[in-house]
Each structure stands twice: as C-alpha cells, then as structure tokens.
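Researcher: Go.
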Amino acid sequence: MDLQNGKRFVEKHGPDAKPDRLIKNEILKRTNKNEIPCAVAFEIAKELQVSADAVGMTVDLINYRLVKCQLGLFGYQPKKRIVKPQHTVTEDLKNAISDALVQGRLPCKSAWDIALRFKMHKMKVSGACEAMGVKIKHCQLGAF
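Model: Structure:
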C-alpha cells in the first residue's frame, strides 16, 4: 500500500524482511487509518517485551505510518512537527544535552533519558534542542 507521498516504508528493510506476527497483530488491534502513535508503539514494545526498533520495523513492513512523536518531531497535522524552541534553557539542561551528543546530534533515547533525569516532559528537551540548534537523530522506532 502506498502512502500519500508514494513512499513505501517497507523498502528501507530489504526484500527478505518479514513482519513479526505477534507485533503485527498487536499493531492491527490498536490502530486505525494505517497510523500508529509513537506512545502506542512503545506500549506494544513494553507489553511484548521486544525492542522499540522491532516494533518500528514491523510498522514499516506493514506500511503503516508512525505518528505523534513524543518529542514533537513528526506525525502531527497539519504542520507535521509541533516542537517549539524553548525561550530559556537552564545551564544544567544545556550541559546534559551537550554531554549526550553523538557526532553533534542528540540520540532520541538520550533525549528521553534527559527528560526522565530532569523530571520534565520529553518535548521540553526537544524544545531545548531546537533553541540550541541541536538535531535529534536515531529515533528508537527507526522513523528518522
């Protein structure tokens, strides 16, 4: 099934990749419109005790779309992303982000870890990254 822009997510995994049956069934039970929110994908991973990237790969292989990134980076309508730069970023948060950079980018998992450590919403961390000009890469679900 082709998505609106003609992109087929299955193509990034190669011709021999097959969806995991258990993960696929759980996705199909919890979704509609061929979309799955990031939070639901993580719930499935936790409940089935599988990795987030295994869920993400299965999402791709059934050509569903990941939506509503918990960092606000993709999957929202109509603007796709909803994260906004934070007006102020504390030195402690700046340092935590800077210390976690890999090749100048903050891994998604590190953003989540920082949010947990600072007891703040994940989108505040991504907003701090926006203010600092730091890109978040390596989505745990494989979306980016």
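Model: The longest helix spans residues 38-48.
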